[in-house]
């Protein structure tokens, strides 16, 4: 499995011939490492309805001829914009030709911001357990720390996990390190930080603290990727910048 970070909470995850994109906030993202028209995907996954996560989902799905997978309310909103959707909800799993998606709970909001002001019901926010081939990537979405992360670690063999560290709107560094100790993933990647001034964090300091508690991680700059290979646990086998 190859995981490429595009900035904020956006990742391209590839296994074999298939690639999926998660939370494609590219237009308007000052740190985005790609443009929407650069993305080729078999599916678009969206964790919740906020604009910095829905982002360019509908446009990418339309150009690629692929579905958007999100909770029912976000799916309904995007379908009204002409997107092909595959609605799901918390606790549900679904298998596609390229892999399996299971939505987990997350503690956050999901209101969909409308043009001209106002909000539309966005359902419950989610995290994503994405399995492609033998590998599972956990994208926590925007969330606070919650106790059932222990259960996620007990019930799933997670090869890599992306955790928000920005604080203010999500977990900060301290709580994300607790989450890491519960999830028991092979590799941790920080996300949802430094995009805007309120969520500025020192990811290298976070990584040092993570390693001091005996866990593996990597800080990916926007555009960088890592390869996940399984031994006794997930390990990073390489990191590279991708144009």
Automatic annotation (TrEMBL):
Q: Which UniProt keywords apply?
A: Hydrolase
Q: Which SUPFAM superfamilies match?
A: Metallo-hydrolase/oxidoreductase (SSF56281)
Note the Pfam families from the entry.
Lactamase_B_2 (PF12706)
The Metallo-beta-lactamase domain is annotated at 7-192
Q: Which domain of life is it from?
A: Bacteria
Among Gene3D superfamilies, the record links this protein to: Ribonuclease Z/Hydroxyacylglutathione hydrolase-like
Q: Which family does it belong to?
A: Belongs to the UPF0173 family.
Function statement: Counteracts the endogenous Pycsar antiviral defense system. Phosphodiesterase that enables metal-dependent hydrolysis of host cyclic nucleotide Pycsar defense signals such as cCMP and cUMP.
NCBIfam families (UniProt xref)? PRK00685.1
Full protein name: UPF0173 metal-dependent hydrolase PSAB_01085
The record lists the organism as Paenibacillus sabinae T27
């Amino acid at each position: 499995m190859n995981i490429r970070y595009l900035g904020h909470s956006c990742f391209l995850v590839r296994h074999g011939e298939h690639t999926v994109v998660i939370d494609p906030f590219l237009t308007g993202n000052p740190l985005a490492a790609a443009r929407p028209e650069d993305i080729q995907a078999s599916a678009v996954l969206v964790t919740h309805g906020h604009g910095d996560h829905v982002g360019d989902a509908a446009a990418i799905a339309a150009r690629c001829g692929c579905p958007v997978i999100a909770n029912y309310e976000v799916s309904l909103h995007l379908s009204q914009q002409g997107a092909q959707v595959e609605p799901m909800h918390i606790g549900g799993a679904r298998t596609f030709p390229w892999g399996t998606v299971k939505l987990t709970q997350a503690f956050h909001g999901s209101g969909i911001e409308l043009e001209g002001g106002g909000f539309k019901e966005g359902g419950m926010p989610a995290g994503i357990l994405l399995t492609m081939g033998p590998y599972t990537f956990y994208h926590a979405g925007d969330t606070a720390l919650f106790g059932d992360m222990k259960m996620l670690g007990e019930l799933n063999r997670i090869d890599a996990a992306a955790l928000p560290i920005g604080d203010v709107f999500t977990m900060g560094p301290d709580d994300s390190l607790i989450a890491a100790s519960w999830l028991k993933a092979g590799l941790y990647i920080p996300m949802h930080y430094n995009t805007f001034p309120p969520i500025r964090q020192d990811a290298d300091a976070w990584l040092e603290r993570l390693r001091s508690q005996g866990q593996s991680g990597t800080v990916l700059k926007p555009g960088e990727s890592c390869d996940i290979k399984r031994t006794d646990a997930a390990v990073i086998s390489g990191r590279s910048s991708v144009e």
